[in-house]
Design brief:
- The protein has 436 residues and is an all-alpha fold.
- It has 3 domains: 10-28 and 61-250, no CATH class; 254-359, no CATH class; 366-428, no CATH class.
- The protein has helices at 10-17, 39-42, 47-58, 63-70, 79-86, 90-103, 115-124, 126-137, 157-177, 185-200, 204-226, 232-247, 252-271, 281-289, 293-302, 304-320, 326-342, 351-357, 361-385, and strands at 403-404, 411-414, 426-427.
- A 3-stranded antiparallel β-sheet has the order 1-2-3, covered by helices on one side.
- Helix 5 (79-86) packs antiparallel against helix 8, helix 9 (157-177) packs parallel to helix 11 and helix 16 packs across helix 18.
């Protein structure tokens, strides 16, 4: 898929966010807020649609209702504005991100060789980093979201959160390099606080960014726990911080509620005749090759009530199941989407839901589940190393218990997925660590 003025689908939102990308802003872009009132949706004669609208309205889950809640945030507490302007313009944020990625590739978190250059970059950014830390310390600060513009929402500030988190991890590396791992605790606290603030934002996009930030934080936990100069006291502090994160673990329901508001905004665009504008160039080319472009748009528009009802029913279900482990609820989605695929050639196939709204539906849930299991695994390892009772856990994706392999006196937690092998907990018992 291409990067364009707007994200072309909810799936694109999620897939781009995995790399913390963002489409370029366009001052001449259409004002997508005209779709927020859901005027055409409310005019639908379909009784089932009207029943759903009433139910969602009672939950204060319509785009305009969620926008009104965001507008109550005081300007001084607006973390979105702070991160948008903290490092300067978006061009400057992109430049910082590029420099960080060049010196320290995202999935190669062994940063020892790059540390001198990274420290120089951090010195240049000392003042903006200090401003961002101050904003995060406020108990009233939170990220302000835009529910009025739907797919036209500017999420470029998310790249600044990754830049900031990576810089804090460099601070941890520097503390270890200077033989003072205890000085890495404060940057770790800041990273975890950022993840928590992103968790609290009522939308799926920042919730998934919290997953990325917390992954960096866990790398910090790993570095601090395994540093040659690490102490029992440091491990106790790391365990305390992880316990706090897990005690505050957010209910996914809030994130999906915000995502539903985004989805309803998309359906209003389709009702307004914008279906084709939501497709990528490749999708348009494919339809033109089959001479189906305008026929497809006509069918989708005629079927819009059935399509949106399917979407809203699925979103209601995911919200109801938000507390159910992913490995259990995934069976429900596999069955549901298998049945859906079997109907692909039927006249009332919900094409917007299937091809746009749910293309990355299970991927998003899986990423959140892996995030939780990484935290569980590191808590178990720290507890075992400190000879404390262990909070046993089941991997939220595989359904397999996380377990220990303590061969040769080394504590290993096994059971994380291959994609997380760089974060597999491997520790010596704290009794072997230097005294604090």
């Amino acid at each position: 898929m291409d990067e364009r003025t707007i994200f072309k689908s909810t799936a694109f939102f999620l897939l781009v966010l995995g790399g913390c990308g963002s489409p370029p802003a366009d001052e001449n872009a259409e004002d997508f807020s005209v779709y927020a009132p859901l005027k055409l949706t409310f005019e639908s004669p379909d009784e089932a649609i009207q029943t759903e609208l009433s139910r969602i309205q009672s939950e204060k889950g319509l785009p305009q209702q969620m926008q009104a809640a965001e507008e109550q945030l005081r300007g001084a507490d607006d973390l979105t504005a702070v991160f948008q302007g903290g490092f300067g313009s978006i061009d400057e944020i992109n430049s910082l991100h590029t420099r960080l990625m060049r010196m320290w590739p995202k999935r190669d978190l062994d940063f020892a060789r790059a540390l001198p250059g990274l420290n120089s970059l951090l010195r240049d950014q000392r003042r903006p980093r200090s401003l961002l830390k101050d904003a995060l310390r406020s108990s009233d600060s939170r990220f302000r979201l835009d529910f009025a513009h739907g797919l036209g929402t500017d999420f470029q500030w998310l790249k600044a959160t990754e830049v900031f988190a990576r810089m804090e991890l460099v601070q941890i590396a520097d503390a270890i390099d200077r033989y003072h791992p205890d000085r890495g605790i404060d940057p770790l606290i800041v990273m975890l606080r950022l993840a928590h603030k992103l968790d609290e934002a009522p939308q799926l996009i920042p919730r998934l960014q919290a997953v990325e930030v917390r992954r960096f934080a866990l790398k910090g936990v790993q570095q601090l726990a395994t540093a040659p100069e690490s102490t029992e006291e440091i491990r106790e502090t790391l365990l305390e911080l992880l316990n706090q994160q897990l005690e505050l673990w957010p209910d996914e329901r809030k994130a999906w509620k915000g995502d539903r508001a985004l989805g309803m905004h998309v359906y209003e665009m389709v009702r307004s005749g914008e279906y084709l504008s939501l497709l990528t160039d490749d999708e348009i080319t494919d339809l033109d090759a089959r001479r189906e472009r305008f026929d497809r748009a006509l069918v989708v528009t005629r079927n819009i009530d059935v399509d949106e009802l399917y979407y809203l029913d699925t979103m209601r279900q995911v919200m109801e199941m938000s507390a159910v482990p992913f490995y259990e609820r995934n069976e429900t989605w596999n069955e549901r989407f298998t049945v859906l695929d079997e109907k692909r050639n039927q006249p009332e196939f919900p094409r917007v839901a299937a091809d746009m709204m749910f293309a990355a539906f299970t991927t998003a849930q899986q990423r959140i589940a892996r995030d939780r299991s990484r935290c569980d695994a590191w808590r178990m390892a720290l507890q075992q190393s400190l000879e404390l009772p262990v909070n046993e856990a089941i991997h939220q994706v595989t359904g397999t218990p996380l377990s220990f392999d303590n061969e040769l006196g080394v504590i290993r937690v096994i059971g994380l997925e291959p994609e997380d092998r760089d974060l597999n907990p491997v520790l010596l018992p704290a009794a072997n660590a230097p005294e604090g």
